[in-house]
Sequence to fold (79 residues):
Amino acid sequence: MAKTTTVPINRRALIARINRALYAQDEQVIISRGASAKQAVGDYWIRNNRKNYVAHKDIDLEDFARKLGVLQDYERLAE
Fold:
C-alpha cells in the first residue's frame, strides 16, 4: 500500500494564492475581525473591490482554493 505524502501550506500563503487568482476579477479574500463581522459573513469572505460588496461569504479556504485550482491534490492547509 502506497503512502501518500501531502505538503503543508500555511494559511497566509494560501490566501496569497487565492488573492492572485481573484485579482483579475477585482476580488480578494478578507479575514473577519470582531464577533459581529464573523457572525455576519464568517471567518473568511470574498469582497469585490470594484463594487465593494460581499461576493462570497463564509468560505472554506481549502475547498475554495481547490475549486480555483491554486491548491493541488498533494497539498493541504496546515493547521
